[in-house]
Amino acid sequence: MPARPSYYERHVFFCLNRRDDGAACCCDHDAEGMFEYAKKQVKKLGMNGKGKVRVNRAGCFDRCDEGPLLVVYPEAIWYTFVDKEDIDEIIESHLKQGKVVERLQV
């Protein structure tokens, strides 16, 4: 039986775990704000929906000292980011053009 095509071309997960014990977490670096920004940008660019891109929340990736983090599937490419410019670069290069942003890869 042939493999069933994925519902989304790419699926982006942002770690939005918040640690209550004071340990490092992605939310210490405005991961929530960057998630909201990415979701808005993908929608604004008409890249969201079936057969396109989905931006989702995720729990802990267990790589807290490398954060903030997001991962793009199906390629399983892990990225860190600092600001909206980094998110824009990931959207333009990876999500639109299929080119990995090596400088942000972890």
Question: Would you kindly provide a written description of the structure presented here, covering whatever features stand out?
Answer:
By secondary structure, the protein is of the alpha+beta class. The chain has a single domain, classed as Glutaredoxin, CATH 3.40.30.10. The chain is 26% helix and 20% strand. The protein is built from 2 helices and 4 strands; from the N terminus they run βαβββα. A 4-stranded mixed β-sheet has the order 2-1-3-4, covered by helices on one side. Helix 1 links the parallel strand 1 and strand 2. Helix 1 packs across helix 2 (84-97). The longest helix is centred in the middle third of the chain and has 14 residues, at 31-44. It starts with 9 loop residues before the first strand and ends in a 9-residue tail after the last helix. The mean pLDDT is 93.
Compile the SSE list and pairings:
Layout: E1 10-15, H1 31-44, E2 53-58, E3 69-73, E4 77-80, H2 84-97
Parallel strand pairs: 1-2
Antiparallel strand pairs: 1-3, 3-4
Helix pairs in contact: 1-2
Principal-axis shape equals: globular
Radius of gyration: 14 Å
The strand count comes to: 4
Low-confidence stretches: none
Write out the strand line-up for the largest beta sheet, numbering strands in chain order. Answer: 2-1-3-4
- Assigned CATH class: Alpha Beta
Number of helical elements: 2
Fraction of residues in helix: 25-40%
Distinctive features:
Glutaredoxin, single chain, 4 strands, 26% helix, alpha+beta, 106 residues
Provide a quick synopsis of the model.
26% of the residues lie in helices and 20% in strands. It has 106 residues and is an alpha+beta fold.
